[in-house]
Description:
The complex is a heterodimer. Chain A is 65% helix and 2% strand. By secondary structure, chain A is mostly helical. By secondary structure, chain B is mostly helical. In chain B, strand 1 (47-50) and strand 2 form a beta hairpin. The longest helix of chain B has 37 residues, at 2-38. Mean pLDDT of chain B is 93; it is low at 194-198. Chains A and B meet through helix 1, helix 2, helix 3, helix 6 and helix 7 of A and helix 1, strand 2, helix 3, strand 3 and helix 7 of B.
Amino acid sequence: MTLQGWTLILLFTALTIALAKPMGMWLFALYEGRDTPLHRVLGPVERGFYRLAGIDPAAEQPWRRYALHMLVFQVALALFTYAILRLQAVLPMNPRGLAGFTSDGAMNTAISFTTNTNWQWYSGEVALSNFSQMVGLVIHNFLSAATGIAIAFAMFRGFARRQAGTIGNFWADCTRVTLYLLLPVCVVYTLFLIASGVPQTLAASVDTTTLEGMKQAIALGPVASQEAIKMLGTNGGGFFNANSAHPFENPTALTNLVQMLSIFALGAGLAWCFGKAVGNTRQGWAILAAMMVLFLAGAGITYWQEAAGNPVLHQLGVADGNMEGKDVRFGIAASALFSVITTAASCGAVNAMHDSFTALGGMIPLFNMQLGEIVVGGVGAGIYGFLLFALLAVFIAGLMVGRTPEYVGKKIEAKEVKLAVLAIAVLPLCILGFTALSAVLPQGLAGPLNKGPHGFTEILYAFSSGTGNNGSAFAGLTAGTPFYNGLLSVAMWIGRFFMIVPVLAIAGSLAAKKYTPATAGSFPTTRPLWIGLLVAIILVVGGLTFLPSLALGPIADHLAMVSGQIF
Amino acid sequence: MTDDLASSLRPALVLTALFAILLGLVYPLALTGIGQALFPYAANGSLIRDGNQMIGSDLIGQSFTAPGYFHGRPSAAGKGYDAMASSGSNLGPTSKVLAERVKADVAALAPPAGTPVPPDLVTTSASGLDPHISPEAAFFQIQRVAQARKLDDAAVRRLVTGHVEQPLLGFLGEPRINVLALNRALDNMAGKGAHSAP
């Protein structure tokens, strides 16, 4: 580890915290439905969309209608992309004549992008035309992010409203976030990326002749416009197979820093926005503080392990830290940091190959996903996931003193806690259930590239990534088979919507309650004690659930690595 | 419930179509136009020409095997530096395949006894297209390159030192050398074709 490396990690943390309030204020204006300066330009577009789609943006929806309309929209979007991928061969902008996807492959990718996962069983530059990338995938990168933020807004309204029957209008939330936040930021972001070296062209590839006289074809495309929303929307699906490690997606150390910041920007802003929505920004800062504690612990461990390197290679006379699967311009610190950020949020973009990390260095990204990606988290999904743990934490604090818990002015009763546990239970059911299945069936065992405990970790990582809607991979796993495409599709769908529907039910239930003012007996949820309790609850729930599986995978792998045993 | 479902169909279908046009076509195409107008070099892949010949991209690594060129890192992209198939090796820390590959690469480099090998010289990059090596990895190769080109070690060392890019603001990124740029400078200094000398 170097001073330079820690400077980067601490500067990144400081910049994230500095972004929370400005992004939060922007989000809060959209949460309240207020006009922003951008309304003068884009207002006619918004109103035109509503008119053509028959939407009354002022029509408030009870939670059931909000949830149903959200689900119908997701199904429509998934079917749209499924059709594009199946029909790729006959659609325009396909100079290389690429074939359409198989049915299981198209289903997997359509669900993957609809659920903000962006798990990719294929290689972008090998399998997708520019049309499929632009029209088939980019639309999800915007709308899955907007949907996540809409759900977060609905949950905030549950806490903020008193004796109300409704939690907002899904169509208006989704459209406003897309038009007034995601799209304008991405326009500026795209131009920055192009200026830094990210291609933006309709050409599919160019042929060159190297200095040694070899032919080298280089894949190109409209990369920058996709890259911007891929990061900002915590989608993570790369234009190229190597994702943000590819020099065309992430050419410099500066683009790398901006990419890392854009993963956390909206998640940090939503934490602040929550505090503002419930009338006390310190509630939001307390949540962000708990997130940062967990984040820094993870970043420290991964950086330490990667900088320490692989004893197996040291034995062979190779110096220093672990550079397998890392690019020189990022080096060890920025690669380790990126891996922790991308899994703390549900982004899943990678600038280094997690599969080639040291055993414990790679365990932190895995554990981050298993915790539910609530450390800042995906846009929207991070904060509503975190609030589930907050409900659990006040419930446990209430049990300790024997009184009905309350949180930000709302009594938390059996109904909310049951729904929260239901949502949280989705993680172990899908991750451990599907991993166990794959570890015994021949179709599952055909997947891993690596042998020994590391092969098991590849399977565990895939289902943690799918269920958590992350999308990063221990990419040695051959996942483009009907078996994995099918199971991961189920995991991604359940991991997204079996979480969202209980969250909206909680929002509806809370909105209907009356305001309960804090008293001397209320547990203060803005103090360090609360932050400590939150961190402890998250680690205990995650630890108890997943430690056995981690012992079989990365921990066993670590013990082998330090004793020099190879498989 | 049925009413809710019916009332959701028109917004769902119409918004899917409208957003597909706005986000899938207008947004990327407009930015392609603006990007091509403002930053034509970068927007087209930072391609390098040598006369009429397109010799590669400033950002994309290429394969070097001749003793008179500095070599980049081992690559897992296709058969090596295949820019239509970017990829890492995805070999884990306890992989026998990885250990055997590194062992063979170390043996080929034949480091003087007691000299550790710079890690980037025997590990594959994440992209398989890494255009850079560390300064240590370049210094490690000076003797071979100078010998193959019948150049003075010190002259080659000066060239290498001049090509080291330092981290932005002192901490963003790592010290690095663009292998293609270094090898072109070498050709300019010693004349092309000299690399094929034994």
